[in-house]
Specification:
The complex is a heterodimer of chains A (253) and B (432). Helices cover 41% and strands 28% of the residues of chain A. Chain A is of the alpha/beta class and 253 residues long. Chain A has a six-stranded mixed β-sheet, with helices on both faces. In chain A, strands 2-1-4-5 form a four-stranded antiparallel β-sheet. By secondary structure, chain B is of the alpha/beta class. Classes of the chains: A alpha/beta (253), B alpha/beta (432).
């Protein structure tokens, strides 16, 4: 589904990703962990197509297509969804109008007619229950005045509405209390299927208690330096990142 | 000194010569007033950019043209410009002349709509003209060369069931229209007023519209005014609204500038009685080489009144917009609440916005605030929307709609709001 091969990316003059490779197959959940500044959020931004980041080397194939060649909206229409670490507040744009416009675009890309108003509302009510998002919130302006937890739930709600084949969660757990974390994770788990994959970027292991990954990768200095199964996350939780840093440095030396 | 300034500008001479032979429609009411204004024309000239009030709004393109005053008797299809579901009385002006046969008046007891009126005493503008000297050539022309008059009178305690919708059409090349409209909302009356300035897409004709409307909002009366500007790139508009408010009066104006080549709006609100509320809202979306200039003036003369002002602009291409919001709080006007905000988004590097709040406060127990901002569209918001599948263009249009949404929300009538949104859609300024 997703093949990232030797990606180098920089912002302005600073090279952040330095040869990152990762392959995600349909239905798999990959967790990306790593210390601050290791390039986790850059990976998310590069996948979503944020123009501040320049890819200088490497390739990314999504379902056989060149992802880097696509505009952000084309990626979204092809089935890539990024749940933002910091969802943007957009005063004056109602959540509903925005989602309707987005869903219509994505369906158009798939050769489908727009949903009828009735079917759309039915879908909204069904999916908002998934993340226990209040009907009041779905009718408000996008993220405006939402608490941190509401914003993250709104991201997962949008993901549930748009039904991507690849969901990228960029530190969706940051700023969430344990209840909100459980709600968000339940929303994601409900969407897991043999056709849908997730890349879960997180600093802490605790999200992975709820969204159990198939693979765990450690990102350090812009590269994946260690991969394993969910046990690796537990080990990181216990021992921190220093032993990995030491391993990497000693190999270099 | 005086003599040299008298005959400097040959453009002005040409401009006035072309209008010669027209007798002002105000002559039958105030012949002396008209004569005075005719005389004054010789002393006045078109403002240059050295005049503070006209610094960014050049009138050279107007003074260089020769304009004529000419009634048009041919057919005009008004139907496409009607707002569905408003069931309004429609008053149609063509080239500045009220065309009764194109108008449809829904009769209601206590409402009179006439070209002439016998008792002028309640219409305060006539006194204003007599008492103050117009320093501005366009204001003077509106008296000396008035094309037609219309008096709308709502009697005491009458609530106008049907909105009154005034249309301004222009036909033929290089016409100037200078109609004067007088509205008198007597005590405890209520009126919804709509006005459409209509462009004519079929013809590449230049027009100049100098209409003035003078509205008296008497004690406890309420007037709501939606002014919709839909002209095209060859239209010049210098229009003026003079509002006089008495105790407990409520006046709201929404200036919705959808289209027009060169527009100067002068909105003057004078608050003469306690416990009044004046609301001034507007948006403008100039593009190509369009110019939109909003000059507003709220004169707080008495205590305990509120004014709320909100203007928003989105500027594209090589367009220019000007906002000058003057709020004057006189020494007596204690407990005044005056709020003003002007926000703008520039979509292009070549667009220019000039904004100037002008607060003169001479009372000490008041709450006055003003805010202004001019910036670019939020890139993060655009990216967020694109990351959900919207095109770049679609994302920007959605954000445009959002930006003017709060002004749009001030339009009380659903029918008017839907009509204006539709006009914006037709010009592809919003998303579907």
């Amino acid at each position: 589904m997703l093949i990232i091969d030797n990606i180098h990316a920089r912002i302005e003059e600073k090279e952040i990703l330095q040869g990152l490779s990762l392959t995600v197959k349909p239905g798999e959940v990959h967790a990306i962990m790593g210390p601050n500044g290791s390039g986790k959020s850059t990976l998310a931004a590069v996948l979503a197509g944020k123009s501040d980041y320049e890819v200088t080397e490497g390739s990314i194939l999504f379902n056989g297509k060149d992802l880097l060649d696509m505009a952000p909206e084309e990626r979204a229409r092809e089935g890539v969804f990024l749940a933002f670490q910091y969802p943007v507040e957009i005063p004056g744009v109602s959540n509903m109008n925005f989602l309707k416009a987005a869903l219509t675009e994505i369906r158009k890309h798939q050769g489908l007619e727009p949903l009828s108003a009735k079917d759309f509302l039915k879908k909204v009510s069904e999916k908002s229950k998934l993340v226990e998002l209040d009907g009041q919130l779905t009718n408000r302006s996008v993220n405006e005045g939402f608490s941190g937890g509401e914003k993250k739930r709104n991201e997962v709600f949008q993901m549930a509405m748009l039904e991507p084949t690849l969901g990228i969660l960029d530190e969706t757990d940051s700023g969430l209390d344990i209840d909100a974390l459980r709600i968000v994770a339940n929303g994601v788990n409900a969407m897991r299927s043999p056709e849908r994959s997730f890349v879960v970027i997180t600093h802490y292991q605790r999200l992975l208690d709820f969204i159990v990954p198939d693979f765990v990768h450690v990102l350090y200095k812009g590269r994946i330096v260690k991969s394993g199964t969910k046990e690796l996350a537990l080990e990181l939780e216990e021992r921190g990142y220093d032993w990995i840093k030491d391993e990497v440095e000693s190999v270099k030396a | 000194m005086m003599e040299t300034s008298l005959k400097t500008n040959p453009a002005k001479e040409n401009f006035l010569n072309a209008l010669e032979g027209h007798s002002s429609a105000l002559t039958k009411f105030e012949p002396l007033l008209v004569a005075q204004h005719q005389e004054r024309l010789s002393e006045l000239d078109f403002p240059t950019s050295r005049v503070e009030d006209w610094k960014y709004t050049r009138t050279a393109r107007i003074s260089a043209e020769q304009w004529k005053i000419e009634n048009h008797s041919g057919k005009i299809d008004v139907a496409p410009y009607l707002i569905p579901q408003t069931a309004a009385t429609t008053l149609v002006f063509v080239n500045g002349f009220w065309n009764e046969s194109l108008s449809t008046i829904k009769e209601q007891k206590g409402i009179s709509i006439t070209r002439e009126i016998s008792d002028l005493s309640a219409f305060s503008q006539f006194n204003a003209w007599l008492e103050t000297e117009n320093k501005n050539i366009f204001q003077t022309l509106r008296v000396s060369h008035c094309t037609d008059t219309l008096f709308i009178k709502i009697e005491k305690g009458v609530c106008a069931v049907h909105p009154i919708h005034i249309f301004h059409f222009q036909k033929g090349e290089n016409n100037v229209s200078l109609p004067a409209i007088f509205v008198l909302a007597e005590e405890k009356s209520e009126l919804n007023l709509i006005e459409s300035f209509v462009g004519n897409d079929q013809h590449a004709e230049k027009h100049l519209c100098c209409r003035a409307i003078h509205i008296d909002v008497k004690k406890n009366a309420a007037v709501n005014f939606d002014k919709i500007q839909l002209e095209n790139d060859l239209h010049f508009s210098i229009v003026e609204e003079n509002i006089q408010m008495e105790e407990h009066a409520l006046f709201t104006i929404n200036t919705l500038t959808v289209d027009g080549g060169w527009i100067r709006n002068n909105l003057n609100i004078t608050i003469n009685g306690k416990h009044c509320e004046a609301n001034l809202h507007g948006f403008y979306l100039p593009r190509r080489k369009q110019l939109v200039d909003n000059h507003t003036f709220v004169d707080h003369r008495v205590p305990d009144c509120n004014s709320n002002e909100l203007y928003k602009g989105i500027l594209n291409d090589q367009s220019t917009a000007v906002f000058n919001g003057k709020v004057f709080v006189r020494p007596d006007a204690q407990k005044t609440n005056a709020y003003q905000n002007n926000s703008n988004v520039l979509l292009s590097d070549d667009a220019q916005m000039f904004t100037k709040p002008e607060l003169e406060i001479y009372a000490d127990d008041v709450k006055c605030s003003h805010g202004t901002s001019t910036g670019q569209m939020d890139d993060d918001a655009v990216f967020y929307l694109r990351a959900r599948g919207l095109s770049e263009d679609g994302a920007k249009k959605l954000l445009t709609s959002a930006f003017i949404n709060d002004v749009m929300g001030k339009v009380k009538s659903d029918a008017v709001r839907e009509y204006v949104v539709n006009e914006l859609h037709q010009r592809q300024l919003l998303v579907d």
